[in-house]
Amino acid sequence: MKQMKDKRYAPELSPQDVQSIRETVGSASLKLMSESIDKMKAMPNRAQGMAYFDEAANLFSKRQDEIQAHKDAGGRVIGTFCTFVPVELIYAAGAIPVRLDSGIYHTVDIGEEILPNEVCPVVKSSLGTKIVQSSPYFELCDATISPSTCDAKTKLGEILEDYLPVWMIDLPRGRDTAQSKGFWVAEVFELKKRIEKFCGQKISRKSLKSAIELVSQAQKAFCRLHDARKASMPVIMGRDAMLAIQALFNDDIERWTRKTEELCNELDEHIAMKRKGYDAEMPRMMLAGSPIIWPNWKVPNIVEEAGAIIVCDELCSGVRGLYDPVRVDEWTMDDMLTAVAERYLLPSTCPCFTPNDNRANRLLQMVEDFKVQGVIYHILRGCHTYSIEFMRIKRVLERSNIPIHRIETDYSQEDTGQIKTRIQAFLEMVKESII
Amino acid sequence: MIVAGVDIGSLTTKAVILKDDKILSWHVMFTGTHGAEAANKTVGEALREAGLSLGSVDYIISTGVGKLEASFSNEQVGEILCAVRGACWLFPSVRTVIDIGAENCRTIKCNENRKATQFDLNDKCAAGTGVFLETMAAMLEVRLEDMGKLSMGSNSDINVNFSCAVFAESEVISLVHSGISKVDILSAIHKSIASRVYLMVSKMGIEKDVVVAGGVAKNVGFTAALSQRMGSELLVPQEPQIMGALGAALVAEETSR
Amino acid sequence: MTASQLRLTIQFTCLVLINAGLFGVAAIGMSFLPSGLAIPGLACHYFKHGVVDCFMYPLEYYLAGGWESWKYLVMVTVLVAIMSIVFGRLFCGWACPLGFIQDLISYARKYLHIAYLKLAPAINDLLTFRFRYAVLILLVLVVSISSIPFISAEWRRNLDLPLCQVCPGKPLWLLLQGGLQILPPKAALDFSKLSLVMLGIFLAGAFSIRRFWCRFCPMGGLASLFKGVRMVSITKDTQKCTKCGLCARSCPVGVTEVYEQDEGGEVTSSRCVQCFHCIQMCPEEGCLKADFVGQTIYKSRAWWQRASALPEKGLE
């Protein structure tokens, strides 16, 4: 038996304290979520297919019972952070992956008791969520996989070890070099063994192949949704699309795929019939920068309520997480694992990588494809890598005459008015430059 | 054609009456706690000076933080747009506009088509705006309008970085205690604001000509410090406070044309 | 039909049509084609009733022939140059029978789910950039020596057609024709022992490393000399590229330039056999393209718009 480890970071909290904080956080988050959902529902001509995602995005929905049933039947649940965990391996071992990045406002203060002030709210909130056990999905996790991306996320893995088994996967920050690639592929091969051992189930060639197919189908559905947002007469608001995408954080992947396909069928029909769309005059905005994780809908709400539409994003909580496919050349174990490993590392434009030249290209291409008229660069206070890359992205976009504006914020709601002023001024500028 | 622009700021409300692209009259007064009333009064005062009545004005545009309070205005327009229009009308060669009011500092870049291409606003902190200057003046027991002239007499090179308007007070007190003269402290305060503003502008890339407007631009000590920090000449309108209102009036002229 | 299926069909058709002798059908064109006409990488001289030669055979033959055969040598070289400029290395990827055999072996390996070996880039570079040109230079040297008059007749016979004596293609085709009873047993076994060893290396290599032979084939090396002026090229749109590395991973000859080159435009490498597998695998719409004199003949498609999300299945 392993010796009981001393808690290295975890605060001493009595179960009663945890219980009471959890209840306040829970009801506050529910209120926050329903407020945002109501705002989104208030938009006219909302696709009917969104109703499912309104439910699925509820962090306290019935989905937890399904996962509990899976656990009762002996299945495992594995938590993930960022967009670097190869979920195909988790599915192949018969386990369920759950993404744990948190957008809950009310647990930031709790995380702050351990973490320094300068750390970003995503990490603070994720940790706080675990401390007061306020996310049912986090509580269902048997283990979590934590990639060493930015500094805060890397250390988050260490802190979480006080609560549950954490497997660090070491991300090479060089990314493009042959050494980095080799290192990462080896890391993924190792992870496969770990998952197999933990789940007590071998990952066979067949099970991995069907897991790849399973995730591919979901990504294909996502790509259809992504594509529907290119329409010059918008048929789906950005917040709706973002919500649908993020529902996959903990939803059943097959059902999610089916529901997304249904939503896309509805949207495609609207595009083909040229009906039921939104005002084509709305400035087309792109969200870039730090992740915006449900229910942190502050910035998207402000942008779309100010009369703009978010047509695409490059956020790791959104498009980036699902865009790049696993493409297998030869269905051998070796090639499949390499394909899975490369898909998570090479095309990623996360600014924790240096050099990160392809991010600018990706943004320019999206600007072109989605006819983006302005970029809102969202920075969460403490998210240094995105903050640093702003200057570079700004230069590239300005060379193409695409206005860009930086919004720095956190999970507090006090700055809503100020952000509104900034965004309104930016939209006014964008509108003027369109004419 | 007669148009009016009214700029309801957090401290003062400004109104400008234009007739055929010429300024007929203007008026500035404190906003106080009631924005709507101030807007009414300011416009009324400006009209009185021009010998006109509200009925003879074809179009009124309001701007500024309280723009929605001017119930009589035909349209509300953002501050950025008004600042650019006003600056370009006064100085057609302008490419960078710095507008420092009581609580806001805006830096804007514009092109030859009088369109803003980039802008930035100060964050939550007030260090670097008019309110900060006012507090400092009160602390050092100097009249706000004398601050600039007084500081020009300093030839010290003390540099203080006031990163927070609240903490600045205690910092200034410690400067006073260490025997530094009022004049030198004033100069340091101006330099500090200038370098904050400089940082905002330099992130956008400084392009000439540069216009400084807003109430703070009336402070010659500050404009001199900023000019030195930026290493370039600055254009300051004769009446820097009314640039926003002027811009609003110009937009009104364009719209009603 | 996927590009790889189309390619297999064309490869098979080429094998039958151009090397028609394999099936004992006398080629119709034989009577009017000048003897010694060479099309690079298309046929082996030792095919019975073959229509055309591998270029290496006339090169060896005329080089050894001394001054009297120089004009044939020039004629053949010009023809090869023209072919290489017009078709690039499409021959290698889409028509060469040795390439076809290697692809078939790869398919067999894939069917057995056995992973291929990845050659270290350094070794791959050594083979493609040094080794294959060393072979070419050695060939010219050996042939020139054999044409020196005072060398003994036996030595001369031993040095005669040196490349054909080590080429794995010769025993491969001879044995194949022998097996099909196109050639009598005696003729079918008329190859050097060394070439039999080479055939062993060729087959084992093809099984474990994709397009093993193509990495240092001197014929391909010769065709690659015209890389800068050829009409077929692969181009890349850098802005569309997501740097996912699929082109590098899926390339059968280990070309990394398509992935690495960040300036865009022409990305063809001298080791590329122009099989266009990278274009087929590329997940981005229009990121990679095959151009013929500026005209796009094939381009990558958005992965999710294809009938099957999986590259090996269905129509593309």
Description:
The complex is a heterotrimer of chains A (435), B (257) and C (316). By secondary structure, chain A is of the alpha/beta class. In chain A, strand 5, helix 13 and strand 6 form a beta-alpha-beta unit. In chain A, helix 9 packs across helix 15. Chain C has a four-stranded antiparallel β-sheet. At the A-C interface, helix 10, helix 15 and helix 16 of A face helix 13 of C.
Domains of chain B, number? 2
Reported by name, the CATH topology of the largest domain in chain B is Nucleotidyltransferase, domain 5
Strand order in space, largest sheet of chain C: 2-1-3-4
Q: What is the tally of helical segments of chain C?
A: 15
CATH class of the largest domain in chain B: Alpha Beta
Tell me roughly what share of residues is in helical segments of chain B: 40-55%
Classified in CATH, the superfamily of the largest domain in chain B is: ATPase, nucleotide binding domain
Q: Name the shape of chain C in a single word.
A: globular
Mean pLDDT of chain B: 87
Q: Report, as a whole number of angstroms, the end-to-end distance of chain B.
A: 9 Å
Low-pLDDT windows of residues of chain B: none
DSSP strand count of chain C: 4
Walk across the major sheet of chain B and give the strand order. 3-2-1-4-5
Helix-strand pattern of chain C, N to C? HHHHHHHHHHHHEHHEHEE
Question: What general outline of chain B do the C-alpha atoms trace?
Answer: globular
Q: C-alpha Rg of chain B, in Å?
A: 18 Å
Order of helices and strands of chain B: EEEHEEHEEEHHHHEHEH
Secondary structure elements and their pairing?
The complex is a heterotrimer of chains A (435), B (257) and C (316).
Chain A lengths: L14 H27 L8 H7 L6 H10 L4 E4 L6 H6 L3 E4 L8 H5 L8 H11 L4 H5 L2 E5 L3 H10 L5 E4 L8 H22 L5 H24 L9 H10 L5 H21 L10 E6 L8 H8 L3 E5 L5 H5 L9 H13 L11 H13 L4 E7 L3 H16 L4 E6 L6 H19 L1
Parallel strand pairs in A: 1-2, 1-3, 3-4, 5-6, 5-7, 7-8
Chain B lengths: L1 E7 L3 E8 L2 E9 L4 H16 L8 E5 L11 E2 L2 H12 L5 E5 L4 E6 L5 E6 L8 H10 L4 H8 L13 H13 L4 H23 L5 E4 L6 H11 L3 E2 L7 H14 L1
Parallel strand pairs in B: 1-4, 4-5, 6-9, 9-10
Antiparallel strand pairs in B: 1-2, 2-3, 6-7, 7-8
Chain C lengths: L2 H16 L37 H9 L5 H18 L2 H6 L1 H15 L9 H26 L6 H7 L2 H5 L2 H11 L5 H4 L4 H16 L9 H7 L7 E5 L9 H5 L6 H4 L4 E2 L10 H5 L6 E5 L2 E5 L17
Antiparallel strand pairs in C: 1-2, 1-3, 3-4
